[in-house]
């Protein structure tokens, strides 16, 4: 058993990366428990595992005292000095008490400990690998599903895609390859538990980082994301290099870059707008593809009133208020949209301080000078009434 155990320890250290010292400490601790359990011993003992020969010995440990109260844990000074005359009260006397048939028990115990430690080490390696990949995209294969989760094989471990992290209407078939976003990695008694998502805004961010080199290199920065997974998303971008078109870089030649992301998300529509530190400009951009005549800002309440042409009102609001809702999430400002006619009746338009256009007549058909970028390729420009 000795040589086999030593060979096993050497192999585990090389193949699994498990420290030999950790394994030896675990084996010694387990052998102490096994000795007490199998030989009905309550005394204090120490197990010595010789790492060169593989020999295992058990030693009892007793404290030297003037008067013995518990013979299992203590030894008198007189008896101790019969063993060695240098002992003094408070010293520890060790004597070998290795049972004759302890080898079989030791072998079985060592095997159990090694198996358990290997399992724990493998789980720890997997945990450390994936905890560093939290907030990142991974590729996997759908294996199975139950009432609550879809389980995805990530190679070394299985991840769970909960129902609330699944894109509404998206089909998930066994053996289908899929990209998911890691939201949480936890240690459990059965190994690392990995939770992934298809609805998290971080998935959209990572996809853009993968498809747009300017974002990956830090030339273009994603400032904010508002997402209603499976339906529509808005993303604001900013170029640190004034010569770079942030929106154009994300869209790509003939829309190739953004179209690749749309395809990955099974047709989810994506509006890309330019970020601005000026809330007037940013809110107007965020309501794209709608035209905006003016934005009135209330700094104290962090709210805005947006005036749009009458014929653009339904487009600005969007189906079930989606466009306005996403714009508010994207900018962090409350947005109240009013038609040009209503704004005129309220006396808040035209506004001579408007940065967009100076109104000189009552011609409501006049087009504003501000024109948000409109990429029909990926934007669903529909003006259906609410």
Automatic annotation (TrEMBL):
It is found in: Cytoplasm. Residues 359-386 have a biased composition (Acidic residues). Residues 135-199 form the S1 motif domain. PROSITE patterns: KH_TYPE_1 (PS50084), S1 (PS50126). SUPFAM superfamilies: Nucleic acid-binding proteins, Prokaryotic type KH domain (KH-domain type II), Transcription factor NusA, N-terminal domain. Keywords: Cytoplasm, RNA-binding, Transcription, Transcription antitermination, Transcription regulation, Transcription termination. This is Transcription termination/antitermination protein NusA. The gene is nusA.
């Amino acid at each position: 058993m000795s040589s086999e155990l030593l060979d096993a320890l050497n192999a585990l250290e090389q193949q699994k990366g498990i420290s030999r010292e950790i394994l030896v400490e675990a084996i010694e601790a387990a052998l102490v428990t096994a000795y007490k359990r199998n030989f009905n011993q309550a005394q204090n003992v120490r197990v010595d595992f010789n790492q060169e020969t593989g020999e295992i010995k058990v030693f009892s440990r007793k404290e030297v005292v003037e008067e013995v109260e518990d013979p299992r844990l203590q030894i008198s000074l007189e008896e101790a000095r019969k063993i060695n005359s240098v002992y003094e009260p408070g010293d520890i006397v060790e004597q070998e008490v290795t049972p004759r048939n302890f080898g079989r028990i030791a072998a079985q115990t060592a095997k159990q400990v090694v198996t358990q430690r290997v399992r724990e080490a493998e789980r720890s390696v997997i945990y450390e690998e994936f905890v560093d990949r939290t907030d990142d995209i991974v590729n996997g294969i759908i294996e199975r599903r139950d009432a609550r989760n879809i389980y995805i094989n990530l190679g070394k471990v299985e991840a769970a895609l909960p129902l609330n992290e699944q894109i509404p209407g998206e089909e998930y078939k066994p053996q289908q390859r899929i990209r998911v976003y890691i939201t949480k990695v936890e240690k459990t008694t059965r190994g690392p538990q990995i939770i992934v998502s298809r609805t998290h805004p971080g998935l959209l961010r990572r996809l853009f980082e993968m498809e747009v080199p300017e974002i990956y290199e830090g030339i273009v920065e994603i400032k904010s994301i508002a997402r209603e997974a499976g339906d529509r998303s808005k993303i604001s971008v900013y170029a640190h290099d004034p010569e770079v078109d942030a929106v154009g870089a994300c869209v790509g030649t003939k829309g190739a870059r953004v179209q690749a992301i749309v395809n990955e998300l099974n047709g989810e529509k994506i509006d890309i707008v330019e970020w601005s530190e000026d809330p007037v400009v940013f809110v107007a951009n965020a309501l794209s593809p709608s035209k905006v005549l003016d934005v009135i800002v209330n700094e104290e309440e962090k709210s805005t009133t947006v005036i749009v042409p009458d014929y653009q009102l339904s487009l600005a609001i969007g189906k079930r208020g989606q466009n306005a809702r996403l714009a508010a999430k994207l900018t962090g400002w409350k947005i109240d949209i009013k038609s040009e006619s209503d704004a005129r009746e309220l006396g808040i338009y035209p506004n001579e301080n408007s940065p967009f256009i100076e109104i000189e007549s009552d011609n409501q058909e006049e087009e504003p000078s501000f024109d948000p970028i409109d990429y029909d390729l990926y934007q669903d420009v529909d003006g259906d009434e609410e």
